[in-house]
């Protein structure tokens, strides 16, 4: 039998790290995003939808030119007009840009937003990580209060628990602010310079451009070095120390189990004070139990000035990795609202019946009665087999005689009893039966 794919068709595969989402796969994402949005709305967050394409400078300034995202992972392009644009690699910088552009600072503060959608990073594809990835994000802008940090962390926990995750591990740290980070940075550089020969090539470069990222390296030698590196919490000024203490007190009051990890810095330049990540234990292909990061975020009080705004906008946020969340076996599938469990399966048995099919389907739609059908099939057995597979309680059968009489047969799939009903009375009849 000839291969239906030609050599040219083989070349036209989805790009590496990107994929098609088809039917139930789309519903998985929709269900997760809808449930997360429902919870966010309950807590007072409002939706925001920023462009997938943004100016390159937004991320170069906001994320930091020396970060891996900017130096290695962004997809950029030049328009015919000469503008340099990028496919957004994350959501926070776009939300802050929107906040500034639309003068949202003049509104009562804080403002609370949620968003979801695709993001793009030219990273090495791996389990739950794609070059076109999907995230759900939360941002609170316009308040420095520690309760905002606690709100973000608590809602992250609730969203993940509703998604089926029970044994979550929260890692949290404070990396201070511009007032107290200078001394920490100085001692960190000094420590790593003494251990320069043991650093990986990436970290030797980070030592010059972004020393805090040294603590984010996953190289085994660098992980070992982190154990004796300076502790950011020991360098906190009184204000940052008080803020961090309050955040932890909120988490204690919320019964959120956490681990203070003094090597946690996150990978982007805009973070200040609180940073956190959320992990779930999951087994790899070899059966080993490994922690997988599901979400991460923190406070970014200086991002607005970095982007050119005249004053700081204290803010805090989180992003949840939808791809990884829905691929794990613990995930509880939430059906999106658009998907309704069908009450009936419509069966038609002649050309005359097909002519009347849309009239019946539309009548049921207007009556808000979910219906399944397969109009391209002709035989009774094939259509009944589909109805059995779906598990609908009733079938509607429209044959040639019924089409001429303006009636249908309604069959109970459990008892096999059936009634003949006028098409005009069908919706009313179906609403009365259980």
Tell me about the biggest sheet?
Answer: 8 strands, mixed
Q: Could you tell me the strand content as a percent range?
A: 15-25%
Helix content: 25-40%
Which residues sit in consecutive blocks of at least 5 with pLDDT less than 50? none
Query: What order do the strands of the largest sheet run in, or round the barrel if closed?
Result: 1-5-6-11-10-9-7-8
Annotation keywords:
single chain, 434 residues, 8-stranded mixed sheet, 16 helices, 22% strand, elongated
Itemize the secondary structure elements and their pairings:
Blueprint: H1 7-11, H2 24-42, E1 46-47, E2 53-55, H3 56-63, H4 68-73, E3 75-78, E4 84-87, H5 92-101, E5 111-120, E6 132-141, H6 146-162, E7 168-174, H7 181-194, H8 201-209, H9 220-226, H10 238-253, E8 258-260, E9 272-283, E10 289-299, H11 303-306, E11 315-321, H12 322-327, E12 344-348, H13 351-366, E13 371-373, H14 380-390, E14 394-398, H15 400-405, E15 407-412, E16 418-422, H16 426-432
Parallel strand pairs: 1-5, 7-8, 12-13, 12-14
Antiparallel strand pairs: 2-4, 3-4, 5-6, 6-11, 7-9, 9-10, 10-11, 14-15, 15-16
């Amino acid at each position: 039998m000839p291969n239906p794919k030609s050599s040219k068709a083989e070349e036209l595969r989805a790009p590496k790290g990107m994929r098609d989402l088809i039917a139930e796969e789309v519903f998985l994402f929709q269900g997760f995003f809808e449930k997360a949005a429902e919870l966010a709305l309950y807590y007072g967050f409002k939706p925001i939808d920023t462009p997938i394409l943004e100016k390159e400078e937004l991320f170069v300034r906001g994320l930091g030119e020396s970060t891996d995202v900017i130096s290695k992972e962004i997809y950029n392009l030049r328009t015919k007009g000469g503008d340099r644009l990028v496919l957004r690699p994350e959501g926070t910088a776009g939300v802050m840009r929107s906040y500034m552009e639309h003068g949202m600072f003049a509104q009562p503060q804080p403002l609370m937003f949620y968003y979801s959608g695709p993001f793009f990073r030219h990273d090495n594809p791996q389990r739950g990580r794609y070059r076109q990835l999907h995230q759900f994000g939360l941002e609170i802008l316009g308040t420095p209060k520690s309760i905002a940090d606690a709100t973000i962390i608590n809602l992250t926990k609730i969203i993940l628990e509703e998604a089926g995750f029970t044994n979550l591990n929260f890692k949290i740290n404070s990396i201070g602010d511009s007032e107290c980070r200078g001394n920490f940075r100085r001692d960190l550089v000094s420590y790593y310079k003494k251990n320069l020969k043991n650093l990986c090539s990436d970290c030797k470069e980070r030592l010059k451009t972004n020393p805090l990222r040294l603590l984010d390296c996953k190289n085994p030698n660098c992980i070992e070095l982190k154990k004796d590196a300076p502790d950011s919490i020991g360098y906190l000024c009184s204000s940052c120390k008080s803020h961090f203490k309050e955040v932890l007190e909120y988490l204690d009051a919320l019964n959120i189990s956490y681990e203070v990890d003094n090597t946690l810095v996150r990978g982007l330049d805009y973070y200040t004070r609180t940073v956190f990540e959320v992990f779930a234990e999951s087994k790899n292909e070899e059966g080993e139990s490994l922690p997988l990061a599901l979400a991460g975020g923190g406070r970014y009080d200086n991002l607005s000035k970095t982007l050119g705004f005249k004053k700081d906008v204290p803010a805090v946020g989180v992003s949840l990795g939808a791809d990884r969340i829905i691929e794990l076996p613990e995930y509880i599938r939430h059906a999106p609202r658009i998907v309704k469990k069908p009450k009936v399966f419509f069966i038609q048995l002649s050309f005359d019946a097909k002519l009347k099919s849309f009239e019946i389907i539309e009548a049921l739609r207007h009556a808000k009665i979910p219906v399944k059908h397969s109009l391209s099939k002709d035989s009774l057995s094939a259509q009944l087999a589909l109805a059995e597979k779906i598990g609908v309680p009733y079938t509607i059968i429209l044959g040639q005689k019924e089409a001429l009489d303006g009636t249908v047969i309604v069959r109970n799939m459990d008892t096999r009893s059936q009634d003949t009903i006028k098409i005009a009375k069908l919706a009313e009849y179906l609403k009365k039966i259980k």
